[in-house]
Amino acid sequence: MISSEWQYKTNCNVPESCQLPRGLKRVAAILSYNGKDFCGFQKQNHSPSLQEQIEKAFSYVANQKIIVSCAGRTDTGVHATHQVIHFDTSADRTEENWLKGVNRELPDSISLIWINKVSPHFHSRFSAISRSYRYIILIQRLKPVMLNHELYWRDKPLLLDEMQRACGHLLGEQDFSAFRASGCQSHSAYRNVKSANIMQLNSFIIFDITANAFLLHMVRNIMGALISVGEGKNNSMWMKLLLRSKDRTLGPATAAPNGLYLVNVEYPERYQIPDLEKGPLFIESERYDR
Protein backbone atom coordinates (compact mmCIF):
# COMPACT_ATOMS: atom_id res chain seq x y z
CA MET A 1 0.00 0.00 0.00
CA ILE A 2 1.46 3.41 -0.99
CA SER A 3 1.47 5.81 1.93
CA SER A 4 -0.27 9.16 1.63
CA GLU A 5 3.11 10.79 2.35
CA TRP A 6 4.69 9.16 -0.70
CA GLN A 7 1.68 9.96 -2.87
CA TYR A 8 2.34 13.61 -2.07
CA LYS A 9 6.02 13.25 -2.90
CA THR A 10 5.25 11.86 -6.36
CA ASN A 11 4.09 15.36 -7.29
CA CYS A 12 7.60 16.66 -6.55
CA ASN A 13 10.91 16.18 -8.30
CA VAL A 14 12.95 13.24 -7.01
CA PRO A 15 16.54 14.30 -6.20
CA GLU A 16 19.27 12.24 -7.82
CA SER A 17 20.25 10.91 -4.38
CA CYS A 18 16.75 9.56 -3.68
CA GLN A 19 15.27 6.20 -4.52
CA LEU A 20 11.68 5.08 -4.69
CA PRO A 21 10.42 3.01 -1.74
CA ARG A 22 11.07 -0.69 -2.12
CA GLY A 23 8.63 -2.34 -4.51
CA LEU A 24 7.63 0.84 -6.35
CA LYS A 25 8.54 1.68 -9.93
CA ARG A 26 8.09 4.92 -11.85
CA VAL A 27 6.09 4.72 -15.07
CA ALA A 28 5.83 7.36 -17.80
CA ALA A 29 3.07 7.51 -20.40
CA ILE A 30 1.95 9.62 -23.35
CA LEU A 31 -1.72 10.36 -23.94
CA SER A 32 -3.74 12.20 -26.55
CA TYR A 33 -7.15 13.68 -25.87
CA ASN A 34 -9.95 15.87 -27.10
CA GLY A 35 -10.51 18.45 -24.39
CA LYS A 36 -13.91 19.77 -25.42
CA ASP A 37 -15.87 17.92 -22.72
CA PHE A 38 -13.46 18.61 -19.85
CA CYS A 39 -12.75 21.52 -17.51
CA GLY A 40 -9.03 21.04 -18.19
CA PHE A 41 -6.43 18.51 -17.08
CA GLN A 42 -6.32 19.25 -13.36
CA LYS A 43 -8.93 17.82 -11.00
CA GLN A 44 -11.66 20.23 -9.96
CA ASN A 45 -14.64 19.82 -7.67
CA HIS A 46 -17.94 19.18 -9.43
CA SER A 47 -16.44 19.46 -12.95
CA PRO A 48 -15.22 16.67 -15.27
CA SER A 49 -11.43 16.70 -15.59
CA LEU A 50 -8.97 14.70 -17.66
CA GLN A 51 -6.90 13.84 -14.59
CA GLU A 52 -9.90 12.25 -12.90
CA GLN A 53 -10.66 10.01 -15.89
CA ILE A 54 -7.01 9.07 -16.40
CA GLU A 55 -6.40 8.20 -12.74
CA LYS A 56 -9.60 6.18 -12.62
CA ALA A 57 -8.55 4.07 -15.63
CA PHE A 58 -4.98 3.49 -14.42
CA SER A 59 -6.16 2.68 -10.89
CA TYR A 60 -8.54 0.04 -12.26
CA VAL A 61 -5.81 -1.68 -14.28
CA ALA A 62 -3.22 -1.41 -11.48
CA ASN A 63 -5.75 -2.54 -8.86
CA GLN A 64 -4.49 0.24 -6.60
CA LYS A 65 -4.88 4.00 -6.30
CA ILE A 66 -2.84 5.84 -8.92
CA ILE A 67 -2.02 9.55 -8.78
CA VAL A 68 -0.56 11.10 -11.93
CA SER A 69 1.49 14.20 -12.60
CA CYS A 70 1.53 15.80 -16.06
CA ALA A 71 3.88 17.87 -18.21
CA GLY A 72 1.38 20.67 -18.82
CA ARG A 73 -2.00 21.36 -17.24
CA THR A 74 -4.07 22.18 -20.30
CA ASP A 75 -7.07 24.50 -19.88
CA THR A 76 -10.77 23.92 -20.47
CA GLY A 77 -11.41 22.87 -24.07
CA VAL A 78 -7.72 22.53 -24.99
CA HIS A 79 -6.54 19.32 -26.67
CA ALA A 80 -3.33 17.27 -26.65
CA THR A 81 -1.66 14.88 -29.04
CA HIS A 82 1.34 14.42 -26.72
CA GLN A 83 0.60 14.87 -23.02
CA VAL A 84 3.23 13.20 -20.83
CA ILE A 85 2.37 11.87 -17.38
CA HIS A 86 4.14 9.81 -14.75
CA PHE A 87 3.09 7.83 -11.69
CA ASP A 88 4.52 5.39 -9.16
CA THR A 89 3.11 1.92 -8.70
CA SER A 90 3.89 -1.53 -7.35
CA ALA A 91 1.70 -3.10 -10.04
CA ASP A 92 3.58 -5.32 -12.48
CA ARG A 93 1.97 -5.00 -15.91
CA THR A 94 3.35 -5.44 -19.42
CA GLU A 95 3.24 -2.59 -21.89
CA GLU A 96 0.50 -4.42 -23.80
CA ASN A 97 -1.56 -4.94 -20.65
CA TRP A 98 -1.32 -1.26 -19.75
CA LEU A 99 -2.23 -0.12 -23.26
CA LYS A 100 -5.18 -2.45 -23.75
CA GLY A 101 -6.48 -2.27 -20.20
CA VAL A 102 -6.28 1.49 -19.74
CA ASN A 103 -7.70 2.29 -23.19
CA ARG A 104 -10.60 -0.03 -22.48
CA GLU A 105 -11.43 1.99 -19.35
CA LEU A 106 -10.85 5.46 -20.80
CA PRO A 107 -13.63 7.41 -22.54
CA ASP A 108 -13.41 7.67 -26.33
CA SER A 109 -12.00 11.20 -26.08
CA ILE A 110 -8.78 10.02 -24.34
CA SER A 111 -6.20 7.54 -25.65
CA LEU A 112 -3.07 6.05 -24.10
CA ILE A 113 -0.50 5.84 -26.93
CA TRP A 114 2.79 4.95 -25.17
CA ILE A 115 3.88 3.68 -21.75
CA ASN A 116 7.09 2.40 -20.19
CA LYS A 117 9.05 2.19 -16.96
CA VAL A 118 11.47 5.10 -16.45
CA SER A 119 14.17 6.26 -14.07
CA PRO A 120 12.90 7.15 -10.57
CA HIS A 121 14.44 10.58 -11.16
CA PHE A 122 12.14 11.33 -14.12
CA HIS A 123 9.36 13.85 -13.56
CA SER A 124 6.89 14.67 -16.31
CA ARG A 125 6.86 18.37 -15.40
CA PHE A 126 10.21 19.19 -13.82
CA SER A 127 12.38 17.07 -16.15
CA ALA A 128 10.96 18.72 -19.28
CA ILE A 129 13.30 20.86 -21.39
CA SER A 130 10.55 22.41 -23.50
CA ARG A 131 6.89 22.21 -24.44
CA SER A 132 5.37 22.78 -27.87
CA TYR A 133 1.87 23.99 -28.67
CA ARG A 134 0.05 24.19 -32.00
CA TYR A 135 -2.92 26.42 -32.82
CA ILE A 136 -5.04 25.60 -35.87
CA ILE A 137 -7.26 28.00 -37.79
CA LEU A 138 -9.51 26.93 -40.65
CA ILE A 139 -10.09 29.58 -43.32
CA GLN A 140 -13.20 28.91 -45.37
CA ARG A 141 -16.36 30.79 -46.30
CA LEU A 142 -18.87 28.54 -44.54
CA LYS A 143 -18.89 27.32 -40.96
CA PRO A 144 -17.58 23.73 -40.68
CA VAL A 145 -19.86 21.04 -39.28
CA MET A 146 -17.07 18.54 -38.64
CA LEU A 147 -14.14 19.46 -36.38
CA ASN A 148 -15.83 22.63 -35.15
CA HIS A 149 -14.60 21.85 -31.60
CA GLU A 150 -11.10 20.94 -32.82
CA LEU A 151 -10.10 24.14 -34.62
CA TYR A 152 -10.85 27.86 -34.81
CA TRP A 153 -12.87 28.90 -37.86
CA ARG A 154 -12.66 32.17 -39.77
CA ASP A 155 -14.46 33.10 -42.96
CA LYS A 156 -11.88 35.71 -44.05
CA PRO A 157 -8.15 35.35 -44.86
CA LEU A 158 -5.33 36.64 -42.67
CA LEU A 159 -2.12 38.53 -43.53
CA LEU A 160 0.24 35.60 -43.03
CA ASP A 161 3.53 37.40 -43.83
CA GLU A 162 2.81 40.14 -41.31
CA MET A 163 1.88 37.52 -38.70
CA GLN A 164 5.19 35.72 -39.28
CA ARG A 165 7.09 38.97 -38.81
CA ALA A 166 5.22 39.47 -35.55
CA CYS A 167 6.30 35.98 -34.44
CA GLY A 168 9.92 37.12 -34.63
CA HIS A 169 9.37 39.49 -31.70
CA LEU A 170 8.38 36.56 -29.46
CA LEU A 171 11.76 34.82 -29.60
CA GLY A 172 14.19 34.61 -26.71
CA GLU A 173 13.89 35.04 -22.96
CA GLN A 174 11.51 37.90 -22.18
CA ASP A 175 8.88 39.10 -19.74
CA PHE A 176 5.55 37.85 -21.12
CA SER A 177 3.31 39.71 -18.67
CA ALA A 178 1.40 41.18 -21.64
CA PHE A 179 0.23 37.64 -22.47
CA ARG A 180 -0.32 36.41 -18.92
CA ALA A 181 -3.82 35.69 -17.58
CA SER A 182 -4.82 37.48 -14.38
CA GLY A 183 -5.18 34.18 -12.50
CA CYS A 184 -1.63 33.02 -13.29
CA GLN A 185 0.20 31.87 -10.15
CA SER A 186 3.71 31.68 -11.61
CA HIS A 187 6.32 33.59 -9.60
CA SER A 188 7.98 34.95 -12.75
CA ALA A 189 6.60 36.10 -16.11
CA TYR A 190 9.91 35.41 -17.87
CA ARG A 191 9.80 32.61 -20.41
CA ASN A 192 12.24 31.53 -23.13
CA VAL A 193 10.54 31.08 -26.51
CA LYS A 194 12.78 28.89 -28.67
CA SER A 195 10.70 29.00 -31.86
CA ALA A 196 7.49 30.61 -33.11
CA ASN A 197 6.27 30.10 -36.66
CA ILE A 198 3.08 30.41 -38.64
CA MET A 199 2.33 28.72 -41.96
CA GLN A 200 -0.55 27.92 -44.29
CA LEU A 201 -1.38 24.35 -45.29
CA ASN A 202 -4.22 24.33 -47.80
CA SER A 203 -7.17 25.85 -45.89
CA PHE A 204 -5.44 25.64 -42.50
CA ILE A 205 -3.26 28.24 -40.81
CA ILE A 206 -0.97 26.59 -38.27
CA PHE A 207 0.87 28.41 -35.49
CA ASP A 208 3.65 26.46 -33.73
CA ILE A 209 5.43 27.71 -30.63
CA THR A 210 8.04 26.07 -28.39
CA ALA A 211 9.26 27.42 -25.04
CA ASN A 212 10.81 26.17 -21.84
CA ALA A 213 7.41 26.72 -20.18
CA PHE A 214 4.24 28.77 -20.61
CA LEU A 215 2.19 31.12 -18.46
CA LEU A 216 -1.54 30.69 -17.94
CA HIS A 217 -3.34 31.37 -21.26
CA MET A 218 -0.04 32.58 -22.77
CA VAL A 219 -0.40 30.79 -26.11
CA ARG A 220 -4.04 31.78 -26.56
CA ASN A 221 -3.26 35.40 -25.68
CA ILE A 222 -0.39 35.41 -28.18
CA MET A 223 -2.72 33.90 -30.77
CA GLY A 224 -5.29 36.61 -30.11
CA ALA A 225 -2.60 39.22 -30.78
CA LEU A 226 -1.44 37.45 -33.95
CA ILE A 227 -5.01 37.32 -35.27
CA SER A 228 -5.25 41.07 -34.63
CA VAL A 229 -2.12 41.52 -36.76
CA GLY A 230 -3.48 39.15 -39.41
CA GLU A 231 -6.69 41.16 -39.63
CA GLY A 232 -4.70 44.34 -40.26
CA LYS A 233 -5.81 45.98 -37.02
CA ASN A 234 -2.17 46.18 -35.88
CA ASN A 235 1.19 45.72 -37.59
CA SER A 236 4.01 43.38 -36.62
CA MET A 237 5.92 46.10 -34.72
CA TRP A 238 2.89 46.49 -32.45
CA MET A 239 3.64 42.99 -31.12
CA LYS A 240 7.04 44.20 -29.91
CA LEU A 241 5.50 47.26 -28.26
CA LEU A 242 2.83 45.10 -26.61
CA LEU A 243 5.50 42.82 -25.15
CA ARG A 244 7.45 45.79 -23.81
CA SER A 245 4.33 47.24 -22.19
CA LYS A 246 3.97 44.19 -19.90
CA ASP A 247 0.29 45.15 -19.72
CA ARG A 248 -2.30 42.47 -20.47
CA THR A 249 -5.09 45.04 -20.68
CA LEU A 250 -3.54 46.50 -23.86
CA GLY A 251 -3.88 43.23 -25.75
CA PRO A 252 -6.89 41.87 -27.65
CA ALA A 253 -9.23 39.11 -26.49
CA THR A 254 -7.90 35.64 -25.70
CA ALA A 255 -8.21 33.24 -28.65
CA ALA A 256 -10.71 30.39 -28.32
CA PRO A 257 -9.41 27.16 -26.71
CA ASN A 258 -10.73 24.78 -29.37
CA GLY A 259 -7.86 25.45 -31.81
CA LEU A 260 -5.08 24.74 -29.30
CA TYR A 261 -3.10 21.50 -28.92
CA LEU A 262 -0.20 20.42 -26.71
CA VAL A 263 1.84 18.59 -29.35
CA ASN A 264 5.22 17.79 -27.83
CA VAL A 265 7.23 17.74 -24.61
CA GLU A 266 11.01 17.44 -24.87
CA TYR A 267 13.17 15.68 -22.27
CA PRO A 268 16.86 14.81 -21.90
CA GLU A 269 17.73 11.77 -24.02
CA ARG A 270 18.60 9.68 -20.97
CA TYR A 271 14.91 9.34 -20.12
CA GLN A 272 14.07 7.84 -23.55
CA ILE A 273 10.69 9.53 -23.94
CA PRO A 274 9.86 9.13 -27.66
CA ASP A 275 9.10 11.88 -30.16
CA LEU A 276 5.83 11.18 -31.98
CA GLU A 277 3.89 12.85 -34.79
CA LYS A 278 2.76 16.26 -33.60
CA GLY A 279 -0.65 15.96 -35.23
CA PRO A 280 -3.53 16.23 -34.96
CA LEU A 281 -4.32 13.53 -37.50
CA PHE A 282 -6.39 15.69 -39.84
CA ILE A 283 -3.41 18.06 -40.24
CA GLU A 284 -0.96 15.24 -40.92
CA SER A 285 -3.38 13.89 -43.55
CA GLU A 286 -3.34 17.28 -45.28
CA ARG A 287 0.46 17.13 -45.46
CA TYR A 288 0.66 13.76 -47.16
CA ASP A 289 -2.52 13.46 -49.19
CA ARG A 290 -2.23 16.60 -51.29
**Whole-number average pLDDT?**
92
Total count of strands: 10
CATH architecture of the largest domain: 2-Layer Sandwich
- Range of helix content: 10-25%
- Label the overall shape: globular
Largest sheet: 10 strands, mixed
> What oligomeric arrangement do these chains adopt?
single chain
Strand content is 25-35%
- What's the CATH superfamily of the largest domain, by name? Pseudouridine synthase I, catalytic domain, C-terminal subdomain
CATH topology of the largest domain: Alpha-Beta Plaits
Query: What ranges have pLDDT less than 50 throughout 5 or more consecutive residues?
Result: 1-12
In short:
24% of the residues lie in helices and 26% in strands. The protein has 290 residues and is of the alpha+beta class. Strands 1, 2, 3, 4, 5, 6, 7, 8, 9 and 10 form a 10-stranded mixed β-sheet that branches.
Give a structural overview:
The chain has two domains: 4-127, Alpha-Beta Plaits (2-Layer Sandwich); 130-262, Pseudouridine synthase I, catalytic domain, C-terminal subdomain (Alpha-Beta Plaits, 2-Layer Sandwich). It is globular. The termini are far apart. It is of the alpha+beta class and 290 residues long. A hairpin with a 2-residue loop joins strand 8 and strand 9 (204-211). It has helices at 4-9, 50-62, 95-105, 160-168, 218-230, 236-245, 281-289, and strands spanning 25-33, 69-70, 79-89, 110-118, 130-139, 152-154, 172-175, 190-201, 204-211, 260-266. Mean pLDDT is 92; it is low at 1-12. Helix 2 packs across helix 3 (95-105) and helix 4 (160-168) packs parallel to helix 6 (236-245). It contains seven helices and ten strands. 24% of the residues lie in helices and 26% in strands. Strands 1, 2, 3, 4, 5, 6, 7, 8, 9 and 10 form a ten-stranded mixed beta sheet that branches. It comes from SAR92 clade bacterium.
